[in-house]
Amino acid sequence: xxxxxxxxxxxxxxxxxxTPIRPVQDSTVRVRCLAGRAARCWKRDVSEGASFYFxxxxxxxxxxxxxxxxxxxxxxxxxxxxxWVRFERVPTRSRPRLAQxxxxxxxxxxxRLAYARYIPRMGxxxxxxxxxxxxxxxxxxxxxIEQDGRVAGYAMVERRAAELHLESVAVLPELAGRGLGRALxxxxxxxxxxxGLDRVTLYTHVAMHENLALYAxxxxxETGRRTEHGFDRVFLEKRVSSGNGAVxx
Length: 249
Prior knowledge:
This protein is α+β, with helices and mostly antiparallel strands. The protein is built from seven helices and eleven strands. Helix content is 26%, strand content 31%. Strand 2 (40-45) and strand 3 form a beta hairpin. 27% of the residues are buried. Residues 1-26, 86-91 and 243-249 have low confidence and may be disordered.
């Protein structure tokens, strides 16, 4: 019964066929879902936080754990699984959420740090460094992602006729390379699908070649180039299939 993907601790002999289900904040919906698929709850355990063990129709054991990751890792440290070693813990990361007024300072701080390196290339401050974060948050157009309890990055969006426009996205430089930017962009795409919109659009400056490479890897295609407000911009879009999904942040 591995405790999480940030830990390689493994099963004892009586739990060797347990398949982990990711820790969740509210297990009620997941329990109902499993029950609806003919999975049978055969045990509960509260030694490491509330855990529910199910037996699916094919005889596989499933575990649903409700609680924070710290409680699970602490329990594993107290009683390690035989024959397994836990690697260094990966910092916890949350799903993107709707930004609140209390996030203004961190969002502005993130924008300054993330976009400052482009000033020498562009000869001026990038537009996101001058955005009124408080005003955009008041319009519920900002999503943030946290790491270890603090805002680590944000995305600003605007709903248009048949598209969700990604105005800007940034991650604290010291946390770059951990998938936070991809998670924010993925959440925007998920939101567009949930809203029944055809595509996600965005633009970036021609000097931000790292961004152009990233968006290409994520499936965005260039639709044009032009100068707006003194900025030489590259416009891109990604088609997303609409449909009912999880309620976005």
